[in-house]
Design a protein that fits this description.
By secondary structure, this protein is mainly beta. Helices cover 0% and strands 49% of the residues. The chain is built from no helices and nine strands. 3% of the residues are buried.
Length: 95
């Protein structure tokens, strides 16, 4: 694979925590983060992580946007998308 571009969207209520590494590019206006990789060898795997946070206490269920990847394989442009991820948050009383 060559010319790999991984893109993820940061939810509106969240902010990117830059303390432990950062993506290659951050578009604050569109709330997108990007990693660019020139190429991967057959069988090579890489893990990209980041931390987001929010000062708003969210109660309920919400779904995170899908991440996407574009790449070239044997000269053909391909696209791939992540699985859906949802988060459930609530409050509870301790007795």
């Amino acid at each position: 694979m060559t010319n790999i571009l991984i893109t993820d969207t940061i939810p509106r209520m969240a902010k990117l925590y830059n303390q432990f590494g950062a993506p290659h590019k951050v578009d604050n206006e569109k709330r997108k983060i990007h990693w660019e990789i020139k190429s991967l060898n057959p069988g090579e795997q890489r893990i990209f992580t980041y931390i987001i946070y929010s000062k708003i206490n969210i109660v309920g269920n919400f779904e995170l946007p899908l991440a996407s990847a574009s790449y070239e394989l044997d000269g053909i442009k391909e696209f791939s998308y992540s699985n859906k991820t949802s988060l459930v948050s609530g409050t509870f009383k301790q007795s």
